[in-house]
Design a protein that fits this description.
By secondary structure, the chain is an alpha/beta fold. The protein has eight helices and 15 strands. It folds into two domains: 1-131, Ribonuclease Z/Hydroxyacylglutathione hydrolase-like (Metallo-beta-lactamase, Chain A), CATH 3.60.15; 144-250, Ribonuclease Z/Hydroxyacylglutathione hydrolase-like (Metallo-beta-lactamase, Chain A, 4-Layer Sandwich), CATH 3.60.15.10. The strands form three sheets. Strands 9-10-11-12-13-14-15 form a seven-stranded mixed beta sheet. A six-stranded mixed beta sheet has the order 1-2-3-4-5-6, with helices on one face.
């Protein structure tokens, strides 16, 4: 699986995943022209995208969806999140369906995608576990205020693209209104460095897994702090970066 993180953070989020020469996007949260430019920079033609999968309908995850109409790209989202999405041609709209309380697997040209529930102040947000016919199982978790046991079950794999949004103390010391601070720190907000580290402690087995820390706040976090928090947590399990796993802060 080739991973290209085209945008990450509060200004916008977009990931390109390629397997067996098929490319999908997880979210499209920056302007269409920026996505086109960044795709071309990594050697991917915008008209070759097989599908776009949306985690939730906040602007920093759907701003670039006009890309879908331009290139006739199907867009997948939950029924709830379609309430917050406009402008995508009806013929391109696809719904992630549930059955017996769980989302059904989506099969797409050699990729199997498993949506799963996350916890954010959106209509029906999800993360995605992606199993290609060739390559490692990859999990994408953006905005979520907590990681529960059902999420951990779905997240098991070899590649983790996960939010590490903030440091709790920095949020409390920020100039954000108290209501915004409370929202960020709530179970429907964003993952702190500590929450992400705790989840990774439970997921990483020391088998060379790849971790990408994403969606860092430019105000309430620092890349070095996010990295150090995760490394310290995994060191308690006896895992050393570069030997047992690989970490990149985006």
């Amino acid at each position: 699986m080739e991973i290209n993180i085209l945008a990450s953070g509060s200004a916008g989020n977009c990931i390109a995943l390629t397997s067996s020469s098929k490319t999908i996007l997880i979210d499209a949260g920056v302007a269409k022209t920026k996505i086109e430019k960044r795709l071309l920079e990594v050697g991917i033609r915008p008209d070759s995208i097989s599908a776009i999968f949306i985690t939730h309908a906040h602007g920093d995850h759907i701003k670039g969806l006009p890309l879908a109409n331009k290139y006739d790209i199907p867009v997948w989202a939950t029924n709830g999140e379609w309430k917050g999405i406009s402008g995508v041609d009806m013929r391109l709209q696809r719904v992630a369906e549930t059955r017996f309380g769980r989302y059904e697997m989506i099969e797409l040209d050699g990729m199997h995608l498993y949506p799963f529930k996350t916890h954010h102040d959106a209509y029906e947000p999800v993360g995605y576990a992606i199993e290609p016919d060739e390559g490692p199982r990859t999990c994408v978790v953006f905005d979520t205020g907590k990681v529960d046991s059902e999420m951990l079950e779905m997240m098991e794999g070899s590649v983790y693209i996960i939010e590490s949004n903030h440091d709790r103390d920095m949020v409390r010391e920020s100039n954000y209104p108290l209501s915004v601070q409370d929202r960020v720190l709530s179970d429907l907000g964003h993952l702190s460095n500590e929450q992400t580290a705790t989840a990774l402690q439970k997921l990483i087995k020391g088998k060379g897994e790849r971790i990408y820390l994403t969606h860092l706040s430019s105000i309430n976090n620092m890349p070095a702090l996010a990295e150090a928090t995760v490394k310290a947590a995994l060191r308690k399990r006896g895992y050393i970066e570069g030997t047992h796993y690989h970490l990149e802060v985006v």
